[in-house]
């Protein structure tokens, strides 16, 4: 797997309104390149830090494994936002996807990404449905 060095990634305010911080590239990333690994504590759903039901940094791998990046502020992949999140923005599209290899999760470019661009990756419909169900989106929209 080709990998972009983490030193070419930077966290700053997202271009998506009300999304908080976002992950950006300082250099060109070619389609097919691995951008970053989603790092955190590999645990079970029950063993994850649910932070009073507000941990948005859980990546569900399978019924026995999740990656909990809640307390991993230096884990850059956790800052990648979903360009098709709780509301669609005109002209904003995801430019990457998640891939799973041996209980590790990576963000991979699905198109060429120019320097200065925000890394945008789909969280999946289930993620947004869960937030809606928990009432967390009402205050943000």
Task: Write a brief caption for the model.
By secondary structure, the chain is mostly beta strands. It has one helix at 125-133, and strands at residues 9-13, 21-25, 34-38, 41-43, 58-62, 65-68, 96-101, 104-109. The protein has a three-stranded antiparallel β-sheet with strand order 3-8-7, with no helix packed on it.
List keywords for this structure.
141 residues, mainly beta, Beta-clip-like, three-stranded antiparallel sheet, 1 helix, globular
Report on the architecture of this protein.
It is a single chain. By secondary structure, the chain is mainly beta. The protein has one domain (6-133): Beta Complex (Beta-clip-like). Helix content is 6%, strand content 28%. The protein contains 1 helix and 8 strands. The chain has one helix at 125-133; strands at 9-13, 21-25, 34-38, 41-43, 58-62, 65-68, 96-101, 104-109. The strands form 3 sheets. It has a 3-stranded antiparallel sheet, with no helix packed on it. Strands 4-6-5 form a 3-stranded antiparallel sheet, with no helix packed on it. The longest helix is centred in the last third of the chain and has 9 residues, at 125-133. It is globular and about 40 Å long.
């Amino acid at each position: 797997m080709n990998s972009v060095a983490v030193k070419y990634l930077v966290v700053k305010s997202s271009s998506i309104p009300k999304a908080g911080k976002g992950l950006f590239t300082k250099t060109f990333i070619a389609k097919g390149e691995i951008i970053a690994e989603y790092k955190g504590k590999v645990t079970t759903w029950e063993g994850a830090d649910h932070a009073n039901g507000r941990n948005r940094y859980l990546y569900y791998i399978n019924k026995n494994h999740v990656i909990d990046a809640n307390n991993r502020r230096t884990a850059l992949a956790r800052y990648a936002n979903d360009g098709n999140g709780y509301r669609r923005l005109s002209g904003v599209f995801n430019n990457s996807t998640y891939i799973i290899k041996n209980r590790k999760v990576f963000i991979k470019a699905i198109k060429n990404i120019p320097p200065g661009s925000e890394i945008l990756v789909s969280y999946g419909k289930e993620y947004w449905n869960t937030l809606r169900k928990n009432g967390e989106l009402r205050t943000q929209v």
